[in-house]
Amino acid sequence: MAVILDSLQVTQQFATRVAKKLRRGDIVLLQGDLGMGKTTFAQYLIRAISPTPVDVTSPTFNLLQTYPV
User: Fold this and answer.
1) Do the beta carbons of residue 65 and residue 57 sit within 8 Å?
2) Separation of alpha carbons 29 and 50, rounded Å
3) Are 57 and 35 in contact (CB under 8 A)?
4) Rg of the chain (C-alpha set)
5) Which of 7, 15, 29, 58 could hold 44 in an S-S bridge, CB 3.0 to 4.6 Å?
């Protein structure tokens, strides 16, 4: 699926909607050039899921990044 998110507000809204559909064990893959908003999307998504504040780093150079939820 390709989704175009043209503002921070739209990105946050979409990430929140995706977060509501995720279940424990689901995997989210992000693909895109540098500066395309992968980290911003990941931050909004993880903040929508996590009951406590989480420091979300750039997933660009990681093979796997996990966060407690």
Assistant:
1) yes
2) 18
3) no
4) 12
5) 15
Residues 6+ away with beta carbon under 8 Å from 18: 28, 45
Size (the chain), residues: 69
Helices and strands in the chain, H and E counts: 2, 0
User: Which amino acid belongs to residue 24?
Assistant: R
**pLDDT tens digits for 24-66?**
999 988 888 888 888 899 999 999 999 888 888 876 666 677 7
Find the distance separating the first CA and the last CA of the chain, reported in whole Å.
Answer: 25
Pick the closest to residue 5 from 34, 40, 50 (CA basis).
Answer: 40
66 sits in which H/E element: none
Distance between CA 57 and CA 69 in Å, rounded?
16
pTM for the full model? 0.77
